[in-house]
Amino acid sequence: MSQGATGSRHTPVMLEKSIELLNVRPGLIYVDATAGAGGHLREILKRAGGRVKVVGIDRDAGALAALSAEIGGQSRLVHGNYRDIAGIVQGLGIDTVDGGILADLGVSSMQLDNPERGFSFLKEGPLDMRMDSRSPLTAERLVNTLPERELADIIFRYGEERASRKIARAIVSARPLATTTELAALVARCLRAPRRAAPGFRDSSHPATRTFQALRIAVNDELGSLERFLRDALQLLSPGARLVVITFHSLEDRLVKQIFRKAAQGCICPPRQPVCTCNHRPELLIITRKPVLPDEKEVLANPRSRSAKLRAGQKEP
Ligand SMILES: C[S@@+](CC[C@H](N)C(=O)[O-])C[C@H]1O[C@@H](n2cnc3c(N)ncnc32)[C@H](O)[C@@H]1O
Predict the structure, then answer these.
(1) Is the sign of the CA dihedral 21, 24, 25, 29 positive or negative?
(2) Which of 32, 36, 257, 310 fits a disulfide with 108 by CB distance 3.0 to 4.6 angstroms?
(3) b/e sequence 37-47, b meaning 16+ C-beta within 10 Å
(4) What is the pLDDT of residue 8?
């Protein structure tokens, strides 16, 4: 567990299960594509008694600097986007990953809890939402410059928000918006009735949850990066190596499920064709038929784990 500049700590989600499914064995190469505060990465090192090569990637330079100060030379840490995983690991002289690749998607507690990063609707901060502060696109730019229709499409597609048109209209007439709390209050005014709480939870989610999720996904091109990461990660793995992915919302999980299913397919000939001519072989054996969810105890101890879903697969020979 690591502490950020705001004093918040990031508790790794489904730590036991994810590391078990990664099947850590000494002598092999592992990639943690979202090193963050290093909770999972440190556990990989620990399980193998330090006798593994671990590459840690993260888009957040601050997170990597803090992690590097803690773990020193035990792992190769690379500031970059996991969409570039192939170039990153090959740049380190690694052609294939024989142990496994882990990705624990989304934002860390340090990012969420630092108002300056603009991810939280609960704390006043600039409308930033960039995982990588080198990137030119911010939420502020999207909110203040996009045509109303494009804004509504983003909020609908990436936030699955039914009131997207109403919210986009209200944003456009309130321009310019500068802070997270201004935007959150505006969305709350658009959605008069609060959403009902999910079973087992005391509070309904904040009305701005979906709009913030949508803007964050758009600012960081999260789904585009995830799709390329999954395809390239599958190519990098050697037979028997594992791919473990933890997602935090349905759009991410759907993408992982679709790409895993496609990679696990044998014949891809048209269904009416009597004899197979494609000779297509499955690339991946799906280990988790259904996504693994955190248990009740974990959700109570770490409410941020409640939407997590874990899927794992093993590269076929
Ligand atoms: C949930 S946190 C990971 C926490 C980590 N597993 C731990 O136990 O400390 C997600 C991390 O992924 C990083 N991230 C998000 N999108 C990324 C991308 N496209 N490429 C690389 N890192 C990314 C974020 O900066 C954040 O640090």
Answers:
(1) positive
(2) 36
(3) bbbbbbbbbeb
(4) 63
Q: 232 alpha carbon to ligand 1 midpoint, in Å?
A: 18
Q: What are phi and psi of 38, to 5 degrees?
A: 85, 15
What per-residue confidence (pLDDT) applies to 53? 94
Instruction: Using the atom order of ligand 1, give the atom closest to the CA of residue 39.
Output: 8
Looking at the structure, do residues 91 and 155 belong to the same domain, yes or no? Answer: no
CA-closest candidate to residue 126, choices 108, 148, 144: 144
Predicted confidence at residue 49, as pLDDT, reads 87
> For residue 213, what are the domain limits?
115-220
Atom of ligand 1 nearest to the CA of 229: 19
> Which protein residue's CA is at the shortest distance from atom 15 of ligand 1?
106
Domain boundary among 204, 220, 236: 220
pTM: predicted TM-score of the whole model, two decimal places: 0.93
Atom of ligand 1 nearest to the CA of 248: 1
